[in-house]
TrEMBL record:
PROSITE patterns tied to this protein: TPR
Keywords for the protein's UniProt record, in alphabetical order: Repeat, TPR repeat
Gene Ontology biological process terms, A to Z: receptor-mediated virion attachment to host cell
Database matches in PANTHER family: TETRATRICOPEPTIDE REPEAT PROTEIN 6, UDP-N-ACETYLGLUCOSAMINE--PEPTIDE N-ACETYLGLUCOSAMINYLTRANSFERASE SPINDLY-RELATED
A GO cellular component entry from the record: cell outer membrane
Pfam families: TPR_8
InterPro entries, alphabetized: TPR-like_helical_dom_sf (IPR011990), TPR_rpt (IPR019734), Ycf3 (IPR050498)
Keyword flag Translocase: no
UniProt-recorded name of the protein: Tetratricopeptide repeat-containing protein
TPR repeat extents: 170-203, 508-541
Length: 552
């Protein structure tokens, strides 16, 4: 179950211009330090005092920048402050950058690009602070892909480093490193963080960032720990070190340490917003404090936008044996998450809940739950998930049941070795799905077709094959999954002007499926319509001809 939030956090440090007044400059630097350490409350107080004491264009900019940097940007207040700054100085490039950044947040990237370029060009690309602010803006909203552009950020950051000959500001390299981090280029990210390390006044920042990179890299736990330890030795009060340590310890399963890391981060940063509380709810689940996890979720529910909250609540409720409520919450989660983005644990948790509901169900509902549970538990196994002991649950549902592990032959085993060696081997996945179907391992076949679909989502045959396997597993198709797969195949193939023999064969299967489905629903007109389509591509189709007789 992947609960690790993939983000760099608020490590973007706003560079200060050479402002008149030593005390004002010192206060700006103090506010910048707070903002770069997730100490949002202290940053806000600092910038608000500056605006009261000296309502200058630059001070309004920094207050506006605060409202854009917080976890839930307040666009209205940011805009108000930038406009107040421009009212005092209509040529304030910083406040113009602030308004362009708002356009970026709102998805008006082309307008933002034009504004940024105009401002940079107006300075003849010779103002380091302007280049820095623009490069930072393109990274700022890293939870909104449509509002980021890391290539643009790298472009402006590189102009900045080319301009500043002495290159003595560590935040410039950190900015460039952050862009490469977000582009998933850890090598260049570490390279720039290492350059920052050589000149940084507070070396805990680059040490923590390097530790964060290694902490996300499999097999590099030792390097991660070394850099985190150096960060703490250098400055034990830098909050983000503990935030990154939290993510690292969750990844490697050291949940008690992760819990302590998160508490330390909250204590130092005083940042306890809904996002941080959600992280605390997650790690409380991992340390088996389910009551605390549920309590945190209840108190922050409306402020948590991540749909994962439904799954976390379901997991907590399972531990309280409240399976009915768990079922409601997990189904809510699955309605939001597209099938292509679901994890093995999603199916496993669903199967666990369904299996627990079987005992209290009666009649057809009991059988439907049992079949659905077997399907989802087997799919979780095929995806390598180990949230629960799925094999034991399967045996309780039906002693002696044949699962993916027990339905096999030499061809299947050889093909499994092939895909294990190369997960992108589409030919072997196709052969494996077909062999599993022939061996009557229908759930295994479905899982293999799913792998093919994830690798080649435009390949129509995979949807037809998946539909056939789902239908063979459950002729009633109570969950509607076979219908979804057959419908997807029809939508992809039917519009073609000409069809190959294979396409006609699969179309006939799909059309006949829907014809029989309509017949059993008592919809004669719909059944006849699909029969006509079947016979148009396969005039001798025996299943269609038999149904035609029943409809006469």
């Amino acid at each position: 179950m992947n609960y690790i939030k993939k983000e760099i956090g608020a490590t973007f440090v706003i560079s200060a211009m050479m402002l008149p007044g030593f005390l004002n400059a010192q206060s700006i630097q103090e506010g910048i330090k707070y903002l770069g350490s997730d100490q949002y409350s202290k940053a806000k107080n600092t910038f608000e005092k500056l605006v009261v004491q000296s309502p200058s264009a630059n001070n309004y900019y920094y207050l506006g920048a605060y409202y854009l940097t917080i976890s839930k940007p307040d666009i209205e207040l940011a805009s108000q402050n930038f406009n107040k700054g421009l009212a005092l100085d209509s040529k304030s490039d910083f406040n113009r950058i602030g308004l362009a950044t708002i356009k970026l947040y709102q998805g008006n990237k082309s307008e933002a690009n034009a504004d940024f370029e105009s401002i940079a060009k107006g300075s003849k690309y010779r103002n380091a602070d302007i280049l820095y602010q623009i490069a930072k803006a393109y990274q700022l909203f890293n939870n909104k892909p449509e509002s980021t552009d890391y290539d643009k950020s790298i472009e402006y950051a590189q102009r900045l480093l080319d301009l500043v000959k002495n290159k003595d500001k560590s935040e410039y390299y950190i900015l460039l490193g952050n862009a490469y981090f977000e582009k998933k280029d850890p090598g260049k990210a570490v390279s720039n963080y290492t350059k920052a390390l050589g000149i940084a006044e507070d070396k805990s920042i680059p040490y923590a960032l390097i530790g964060n990179i290694w902490g996300r890299t499999n097999g590099q736990a030792k390097l991660a720990a070394e850099n985190f330890n150096k960060a703490i030795e250098t400055n034990p009060n830098y909050p983000l070190t503990y935030k990154y340590l939290y993510n690292f310890n969750v990844k490697i399963g050291n949940y008690n340490d992760a819990f302590n890391n998160l508490q330390k981060y909250i204590s130092l940063s005083e940042n306890n917003d809904s996002g941080t509380q959600f992280e605390m709810a997650k790690v409380s689940y991992f340390v088996k404090d389910y009551a605390k996890s549920l309590d945190i979720l209840a108190k922050n529910w409306d402020d948590i936008s991540d749909p994962l909250k439904y799954k976390l609540k379901a997991l907590d409720l399972i531990e309280n044996s409240d399976f009915s409520e768990a079922y409601k919450n997990l189904n809510q989660y699955l309605q939001i998450i597209p099938e292509t983005k679901r994890e093995g644990s999603d199916y496993g948790v669903l199967g666990k809940i369904q299996s627990s509901l079987v005992n209290k169900a009666i009649g057809q509902e009991k059988e439907n739950l049992r079949k659905a549970a077997i399907f989802n538990l087997t799919k979780a196994i095929s995806n390598g998930d180990k949230t629960y002991d799925y094999q034991s649950i399967l045996l309780l549902l039906q002693p002696g049941i044949k699962t993916e592990a027990s339905i096999t032959n030499s061809k299947i085993e050889a093909l499994k070795k092939s895909v294990a060696a190369d997960a992108n081997d589409t030919t072997s996945w196709y052969k494996l799905a077909s062999e599993q179907y022939e061996a009557k391992d229908y759930l295994g076949s479905v899982a293999s077709w799913d792998q093919l679909i994830s690798l080649i989502p435009t390949w129509e045959v995979a949807y037809a094959g998946k539909g056939m396997a789902l239908y063979a597993y459950d002729y009633n198709d109570k969950n509607g999954l076979a219908a979804q797969s057959f419908q997807k195949y029809i939508e992809m193939v039917e519009p073609k002007k000409e069809h190959s023999a294979n396409e006609k064969a699969y179309l006939a299967i799909a059309y006949t499926f829907f014809a029989y489905q309509a017949y059993h629903e008592g919809n004669k007109e719909k059944a006849e319509s699909y029969l006509t389509k079947t016979l148009s591509v396969d005039p001798q189709n025996s299943d269609a001809l038999n149904l035609q007789k029943l409809l006469q």
